[in-house]
Amino acid sequence: MFSSRVSALRTNRVAGELARRRSEGRRLDDLTASNPTRLDLPYPRDLLAPLATPDALAYDPAPLGTADAREAVAAHMTEAGVRVHPDRIVLAASTSEAYSVLFKLFCDPGDVVLVPQPSYPLFEHLTRLDGVAARPYRLEYHGRWEIDLDHLARMVNARTRAVLLVNPNNPTGSFVRPDELAAVRAVAARHGLAIVCDEVFDGYPMEAAAPRRSGALVADTEALTFTLGGLSKSAGLPQLKLGWMLLGGADALVAGARDRLELICDTYLSVATPVQLAAGALLERSRPVADAILRRVRENYAALLRSADGFPACRVLRSEGGWYAVVQVPSTRSEEALVIELLRHDGVYVHPGYFFDFPREAFLVLSLLPPADVFAAAATRVLARASRSPP
Ligand SMILES: Cc1ncc(COP(=O)(O)O)c(C=O)c1O
């Protein structure tokens, strides 16, 4: 009766323990939190006023996005040092939807896209729901997370259509270095692959002095490239549902992609009119929120590093950007057993590394978004528990 693309939701031991803790009504510090709207950030009360413009009473469908909204995104990118013409911008309801649109653009059922590992678990669902296979290429930690370029090249097969990059990656926090990008470009050129670069976290570099590593593919004149972003992360407004794709590559390739994208997007017309009309104002007015998120993730990451000095058995891996930190912990029990202990005895919820397909155990992933006092105390409990032998 049902498609094999969707299986029934499975539960697991961590979810069971989490539900139990919640049902007991006891305190729980959630270090998996990824929804910025629930974490005491300074959203101006009237931030969303531009959505109420009377102009939104009229509907003029624009499959690729309205000209004003695309210009607003172009202006936002210019401020970040990335020059892109509004004609090379296509809007979607979210970055997740942009992936789905792109899979429809270049994949037939059963085709393959290469995805980083470890990375963002939604890729498994995003690909499967579009009948596409996700083939992982490895990232390895050598003081920073790096793309295993030989492995990536070996993973290409006759069905491969695209390489997906996440820059900086979730949860490893690694930016794609220029030499890595050059190597990926060479692979893409050799096999005629598109490159999709997810840069939703590019506004959150951990180190103030780090060179800016985003937007590099927009100016590409060879491979067909798509750079993804959206209000969800860059403005801390996931509920508004506005994402964008920036197209790069040779004019003829981009024109071919744009024509086809127009057909795909026209089929759904999923981006709401009010958010398009308000896009420029929202990007402008949400700046204090993005600034506060950046301060918070940096502050929490620094607190985690300080706290880890007292727990030499744990190692905080280097993060260059984004909203998450990875901690390598002693593998004296499974990641799952440790996460359950933390829920049961310490009232802290963290993600196990296997959730993100780390190559081996034991890693924990901590969200850096919670308020600083909550984060610092809970992170110290995590390090203390992980350093201790299992009960
Ligand atoms: C790397 C990455 N890309 C995309 C998304 C999804 O963003 P959106 O809300 O625009 O779908 C997330 C959400 O956590 C993410 O971590």
Instruction: Name the beta content range.
Output: 15-25%
The CATH architecture designation of the largest domain is: 3-Layer(aba) Sandwich
CATH fold type of the largest domain: Aspartate Aminotransferase, domain 2
Structural class call reads alpha/beta
- Write down the Rg: 21 Å
Instruction: Give me the side-by-side strand order of the main sheet.
Output: 2-9-8-7-6-3-4-5
Overall 3D shape: globular
- Helix percentage: 25-40%
| Total beta strands | 14
Order of helices and strands: HEHEHEHEEHEHEEHEHHHEEHEEEH
**Mean pLDDT, as a whole number?**
96
- Name of the CATH first level of the largest domain: Alpha Beta
Number of domain units: 2
Which hetero compounds are present in the coordinates? Answer: pyridoxal-5'-phosphate
Can you give a write-up of this model?
The chain has 391 residues and is an alpha/beta fold. The protein has helices at 13-23, 67-79, 95-106, 122-129, 149-155, 178-191, 231-234, 251-268, 273-285, 287-308, 335-346, 372-387, and strands at 29-30, 89-92, 112-117, 133-141, 145-147, 160-166, 194-198, 225-230, 243-248, 315-316, 324-328, 348-349, 351-352, 363-367. The protein has 2 domains: 13-38 and 288-387, Aspartate Aminotransferase, domain 1, CATH 3.90.1150; 56-285, Aspartate Aminotransferase, domain 2. The protein is built from 12 helices and 14 strands. An 8-stranded mixed β-sheet has the order 2-9-8-7-6-3-4-5. A 4-stranded antiparallel β-sheet has the order 10-11-14-13. A two-stranded parallel sheet has the order 1-12. Strand 6 (160-166), helix 6 (178-191) and strand 7 form a beta-alpha-beta unit. Helix 2 (67-79) packs parallel to helix 9 and helix 11 (335-346) packs across helix 12. Residues 34, 94-96, 120, 166, 170, 198, 200, 230, 232, 238, 243 line the site of pyridoxal-5'-phosphate (PLP).
